[in-house]
Amino acid sequence: xxxxxxxxxxxxxxxxxxxxxxxxxxxxxxxxxxxxxxxxxxxxxxxxxxxxxxxxxxxxxxxxxxxxxxxxxxxxxxxxxxxxxxxxxxxxxxxxxxxxxxxxxxxxxxxxxxxxxxxxxxxxxxxxxxxxxxxxxxxxxxxxxxxxxxxxxxxxxxxxxxxxxxxxxxxxxxxxxxxxxxxxxxxxxxxxxxxxxxxxxxxxxxx
Length: 207
Description:
Elements: E1 2-11, E2 14-24, E3 29-34, H1 40-48, E4 55-60, E5 63-64, H2 65-68, H3 70-73, E6 76-79, H4 91-102, H5 108-117, H6 133-141, H7 143-146, E7 151-155, H8 163-178, E8 182-186, E9 199-203
Parallel strand pairs: 3-8, 3-9, 6-7, 7-8
Antiparallel strand pairs: 1-2, 1-4, 4-5
Helix pairs in contact: 4-5
């Protein structure tokens, strides 16, 4: 379970958000939204332990993530605005190297299968720099298919994707939730995934 209590972040003389608190249990999705500049990306990065909040605490299964360190980083997968892929490497190479950095080994066949499922059939062995923006995004998102992290933190995951890819990604996320995974995401696109039974958290405190 993920527990966030009294989280606050300040940048310069501006408070992005204050006293943010929520819990997320296996099978739950939290949709984070708010105006541009409200601190959505900052909150996601703070939850992942990529930046330190000014106040508050993030706990994973009852323990402060700062004390868990590598044990927590293996349990969380963060995908940000940038794809985080190398242009000179193929989709296969990017996926396999990314898996090593995430702490998991991925066979070449598993990488081929993941890229085919995500919609890159026929482009798996091309350098990422020759792919379109949407195809590069698919390479990055293929990490979701091979990573065993329980908590997915996704910052604008639907950017640059066509309608078919958006629907596919929603199905992938639903499968993760059905298997007891946890998901935090922010998106400017209206998708069915963020309605219904998902939890909502809106940022927008101004100070």
